[in-house]
């Protein structure tokens, strides 16, 4: 009994095509989408607002976050965009709440300790008065907004703190959960193209190999044997 290599090749091609299609179908229906969501922070203390699209400018600071989950288990990731502002020096800086009174009291306290030999002078008395005022303000937790370069340590600490303490609102959580099926449908459309394209390439490759073999063997196109062998 003669072995029909062309029939065997066709069976192998069909098997590979079936495995290819089944593999993609299993992937598409078990794949859990990663939802991308971005938030903007317009000013210190303001609640992060979900952005419809990327709105970060070159002077804005960014803080990325990864692998977070909603209550329903939807995975999401994205970034925070901290909007810059123009300050008195004309520069665009990232605004941050700073306890300037505490900073000033510490600075003045160090100066007073280092300049005890100036005690009794007008400069020393002014420093004492300013220190007492700053200390009182610090005790009352008075804060002010100051601007820093987006790559400064102050900004990095601030953006990380905001990202770490962020809690999703119910509206944002519902939006993220609602994006699961649109993401699945999008992946399904793209996956369908891969399925069709992969099967088409497989059959084209098989046909080309068969055409070459038939040419060398002298077998007419569309047949598996020479006319003399039939």
SSE inventory with pairings:
Blueprint: H1 5-30, E1 34-41, E2 49-50, E3 61-69, E4 75-82, E5 85-86, E6 92-98, H2 100-114, H3 122-139, E7 144-148, H4 153-165, H5 170-178, H6 180-217
Parallel strand pairs: 1-4
Antiparallel strand pairs: 1-2, 3-4, 5-6, 6-7
Helix pairs in contact: 1-6, 2-3
Tell me the helix content.
40-55%
- Estimate the global geometry from the Cα principal axes: rod-shaped
Tell me the β content.
Answer: 15-25%
Span from first to last CA?
A: 13 Å
Low-confidence stretches: none
| Largest sheet, strands/sense/barrel | 4 strands, mixed
User: How many β-strand runs?
Assistant: 7
Order of helices and strands: HEEEEEEHHEHHH
Strand order of the largest sheet: 2-1-4-3
Coarse structural class: alpha+beta
Rounded to an integer in angstroms, the radius of gyration calculated over CA atoms is 35 Å
How many DSSP helices?
A: 6
The overall pLDDT, averaged over residues, is: 80
Question: Can you give a write-up of this model?
Answer:
There is one protein chain. This protein has helices at residues 5-30, 100-114, 122-139, 153-165, 170-178, 180-217, and strands spanning 34-41, 49-50, 61-69, 75-82, 85-86, 92-98, 144-148. The chain has 230 residues and is of the alpha+beta class. Among the domains are: 5-30 and 186-223; 100-142, no CATH class. The strands form two sheets. Strands 2-1-4-3 form a four-stranded mixed β-sheet, with helices on one face. A three-stranded antiparallel β-sheet has the order 5-6-7, with helices on one face. Strand 3 (61-69) and strand 4 form a beta hairpin. The two termini are 13 Å apart.
